[in-house]
Design goal:
single chain; mainly alpha; 23 helices; 2 strands; about 475 residues
Length: about 475
């Protein structure tokens, strides 16, 4: 049965499994340690069959094939099955780059549920397949995805199972798989479906009074995806979801989390809701009303960035003057910096969080800049009433917005070397999180030409180094001058 408010264990709603499965799972929990991920991330010579498969299905130039071969694992020669190696990679490497960073803490309980493990294997094997450019691993990932999809659909048809933590976790893992495997310029229909499904699950869970520590992490993860989806497709935030957020209880700060992270979570969700509402309501809005609201939301976002800087400070390095600090940081690695400035963050999660808020501020200021002509969708041109505070600075607002936008563009670009060149090779997959902010930044009306050219070059480099098809597609669309696809 679902856990009620006040329950202390986050595991009561995990389904029990038979004794033989439990003993096998406990063995896996002991075996899958960070060292497992370390082993698999050491490049190994390639088995003949894998080389032929990579070249046959991956395609590309001779240089691309050689780069793929240098990363191919000898999974069949290792002591652990591919699933366990992928699990180690997902939990201790890949998840630390994204919204599943909380998952390793719940592994001892999750690993006893065979259905949950199959759900985790889908994105785990997909992430490992991307890292090694392995079609074989990707086929295995798709098999687990299909199994999990069937299990999840069955759970969703049962009101008792639909509200469990494991069901929402499975939906979010399916969403992650879709995000990992999506490529080309097609519409991400499956990703959208899973995100919309998570909205309904959150409402059902609220009605059932579900309150677990794992559930709070899942709610935050799902909420960010839901609001991002609303913003992308200019959808109004569902009323039930708004009500849910008004009663949300976020994860308590753990020993490893920065002081103030709860404050950040609450305010980021609130900021995203206001931003999504603006995006959906812009058509038919007066320019004065739009600018006023954008200025208010931008001030809120600026305050949130101040909180982040206080609790998660990052280092700013001028490559033209801080030669000693640069050498210590890069250890001789060549860094491609824009305007000579790079940022060094404490964690990979910090980069994502800072850039998410910077992107919101960039778009808000782009809207302000464009609200003074006919280039902003559906906004009706007008001017403020004489004698009002808005009228006194009305003519200066476009230039001020352009300058603020340029500041955020510079900060987003300054975060690129950290993910592309400064992280250990095992963690370079975090650079995938740069594709969307970089592409959206370069496509902005207020992005300077030299910044756009730098971004296109970096996207091409991401595609070359890590075989990210989305990076290549984004660079191509920017060069062609066409609108970015909704992915």
């Amino acid at each position: 049965m679902p856990m009620t408010r006040g329950s202390t264990s986050p595991l009561n709603n995990m389904s029990e499994v038979r004794g033989n499965r439990r003993s096998r799972s406990k063995s896996r929990a002991q075996d899958v340690q960070p060292s497992t991920a370390d082993r698999v991330l050491i490049p190994n010579p390639q088995s003949p069959g894998e080389e032929n498969e990579s070249e046959r299905e991956g395609g590309g130039s001779e240089g691309d094939g050689e780069r793929r071969r240098s990363r191919q694992p000898m999974l069949l020669t290792l002591w652990a099955p591919p699933e366990d190696i992928a699990l180690g990679y997902f939990l201790f490497v890949f998840s630390q780059n994204g919204p599943f960073n909380f998952l390793p803490g719940f592994l001892p309980a999750l690993i006893e549920d065979e259905e949950i493990m199959q759900a985790i294997y889908a994105p785990a094997l997909a992430a490992l397949a991307l890292y090694y450019s392995s079609p074989r691993l990707l086929r295995e990932a798709r098999s687990y995805y299909a199994t999990t999809l069937g299990q999840t659909n069955k759970a969703l048809s049962d009101p008792r199972l639909a509200v469990l933590d494991k069901t929402l976790l499975s939906v979010l893992l399916l969403t992650s798989f879709e995000a990992l495997t999506f490529s080309g310029r097609s519409s991400p229909r499956n990703w959208n479906s899973h995100v919309k499904g998570s909205t309904n699950l959150l409402v059902l869970r609220e009605a059932a009074h579900i309150d677990t520590e794992l559930g709070r992490h899942l709610m935050y993860h799902a909420s960010v995806a839901i609001l991002a989806n609303c913003t992308t497709y200019r959808l109004h935030v569902p009323a039930a979801f708004r009500h849910l957020q008004g009663h949300a209880v976020w994860p308590q700060r753990g020993a490893t989390e920065s002081l103030g992270i709860d404050h950040t979570r609450r305010h980021l969700i609130g900021l995203m809701m206001r931003f999504a509402t603006m995006s959906a309501s812009m058509n038919g809005m007066l320019a004065t009303e739009l600018v006023t609201k954008c200025v208010e939301i931008d001030a809120e976002a600026a305050a949130l960035l101040d909180v982040l800087r206080e609790y998660m400070p990052y280092q700013i390095i001028d490559v033209t003057t801080d030669s000693e600090e640069l050498q210590k940081l890069t250890k001789g690695t060549e860094v491609c910096a824009y305007n000579g400035i790079i940022h060094k963050y404490q964690t990979r999660q910090d980069v994502r969080l800072f850039n998410s808020i910077r992107m919101i501020r960039l778009v808000l200021n782009e809207w302000i800049f464009c609200a003074f002509d006919h280039s902003l969708r559906g906004v009706i041109l007008d001017e403020p009433q004489p004698g009002t505070l808005l009228s006194e600075k009305w003519n200066e607002l476009p230039q001020e917005a352009s300058l603020r936008a340029a500041e955020h563009i510079n900060d987003i670009i300054a975060s690129v070397p950290y993910s592309v060149e400064l992280l250990p090779s095992a963690f370079r997959m975090t650079a995938r999180s740069l594709i969307w902010p970089l592409a959206a930044t370069a496509g902005s009306e207020v992005c300077p030409l030299d910044a756009k050219l730098y971004i296109i070059g970096r996207l091409k480099e991401l595609a070359r180094l890590h075989d990210f098809p989305q990076a290549k597609e984004a660079a191509t669309m920017l060069e062609e001058g066409v609108d970015l696809e909704d992915w």
